[in-house]
Hints:
- By secondary structure, this protein is an all-beta fold.
- It has two helices and 56 strands.
Amino acid sequence: ESSGIVTEEESISEKEESASGPEEGAVLSEEQPAENEEEIPEPAVPEDIQGEVPEENNSETVPEEVPDENDTETVPEEVESEASVEDISEAAPDEGASEVPPEKENAPEEAENGEGILSERASSGKCGDNVTWSFDDGTLTISGTGDMYDYDSSDPGYFDLRNEIYTLIIEDGITNIGKYAFYDFESINTVEIPESVKTLRDFAFAQCMWMESIVINQGVTSIGSKVFYGCSELTDVEFRGSAPTISSDAFTGVTAKVYYPTYSSYITGWTSDVMMNYGGNLTWKDNNKCGDKVTWYISSGTLYIQGEGPMWDFDDEDPRYLKQKDKINRVYVSWEITRIGNYAFFDLDTITRATIGDDVTEIGNDAFEKCSSLTSVKIPAGVTSIGEHAFAFCTALEKIEFLGSAPAFGNNYVFANVTATATYLPVDGWSASSFKDYGGTITWVIDNKVGNNVTWALNGGVLTLSGSGFTYDYTESQHPSYWIQRENIKSIVVEEGVLSLGNYMFNGLYNATKITLPSSLQYINGYAFSYCRSLQKIDIPSGINKIAEGTFYHCLSLENVTLPPSVTVIGEQAFYDCEALKEIVIPSGVERIERNTFYNCPALEKITLPGNLKYIGEYTFWGTGLTSITLPSGLEEIQKYAFGCPITEVSIPASVTAIADDAFAGCTKLKKFIVDKENKSFTSADGVLFSKQKTILLRYPLAKEDNSYSVPAGTETIQASAFANSINLVSVTIPGGVTVK
């Protein structure tokens, strides 16, 4: 069969034999004219769409001059009955046949040098009220806004170019693909319908016999009669939106796999009732599956792989997301994915980053091969094997981080044609045999530094810091390199010579039950042991003078802490959420206990406060189990909500000069205040706290047993929350002239 494509040489040859050709839209007959005789053949069309050919065109000899522009032409009427693919094929033009350009009146004369010249044809025009077409170098572009015209009674202006059109671009803004708009466009291979299109009208792509795939984006709501009729090579149809209304014969003569989306709750309508054959033989598949329990979707340039279990292998068929590779610049494989399949991201050359979830244990053969824009990758600690050629020809790859033990490498070409630095951790499993080039140029570097001269190693569950000098500071989100191995760290040993533990040094090492610190240690910085949830006991060496902010934050199992006499400062939240802490002695040099220091330590029933203590901050003992407390004689200031504990009475020493409102608001068992007679700022009467001159009633004890109370004469002001939450109080008698502040 002829391809229907006209080369320049063939066209010129035809022009040499005759200065004019068949009428516009006509197709040359398979029967050749007699020698030295040229005829205008009948248009070869399927029987069910043949129109009447004008009698004068049946055997007329082609004149040498250009045919008159008023010559009649036969336009097939809209198809009413099905024509088989075989019928259409039999009507195809002979090899090398030429079709007459649309602008017949402008056909050029023979060139002076004897070579024929192609007719001048329009390269652009209108195909809708606000829609235009343009043709350039094999590409037809439809642009504008609104509907295309229907062509059931005439051909579009670009029709005679159809066998020279290899690429069809329909731009966003078009809302309707008209009837017969691309009928019999044999040379186009793939088409994407933009999101703006709502309707594909009857026969829109009928007889596009070499079209292999089409993407129908979200927005299409209706597909008309025989839209893909006779598209015999169409094997791949992808829908990216909700299910449209599809005519029962839309895919007549088509055998294809049809992929429907499932990635979003906004995608609706894809039920078994929709998944019919529509006149063809269609196999329906979930477009967003890439594993039995694994799906994918693309958002803001990131390809997300989610679900649980292994991805499929793609040795024989590409994953569906590769059809949208131009929209992907990053890959994110989520937790609970256990295996990256063979060829999963093969030739995804648009990505620069790839995040592999911690639950991945295998990376399949060729998984990232030819990801030529990928610059760095982290191999999770759980990965035990990396398949053949997994990162081969990732030519931009510069940094590879191994976060666990040495995996098994599939062959010696895992990193073929890659020049990169590979870092590994000082953990079990790495040996000299691990450090190969694997087909590339790999520089292996151990990642074991936590200070300029301090390194770490993990062996048998014991994390050891050794060396000399200070360690680095870290943050809540930036961790030392051993942090990725936190699950395997059972105990910690800091060797002599180490002078400091930086911020967040051991943050989140939740399985460590024991920490041994050296006498050389001088500084423990903020949150150094935070979230060490299994830590039960620790002795702070004598060189430490400050327990920094959040040092033992959320150490849920910590029962016992020994603080040396050298400690003079305890920072905010130092023992916040230490739920198991039962007893602690505050060193004599400490003058301030900052806010939230012992917040929510419900097991803390005994605390010894130093004589030099001057300041108790907000919420310091809120949520503790203290039933009694002795405030030291040097105490000067108690901040609001400082006590929220089950003490029954409190003695205010003579030194106290400031007690904030609600300082004892959380003491639900407090029955009385006792104030030292020498105190110059406060006094108590009948267990109630007053200002020294008894002019201001400051706080009524929450658990005082009386159910009524008479404010004594001489009282001028009552603090606003003085009686708040009193358990037994039923009535209060207030003398005239008393104001509530």
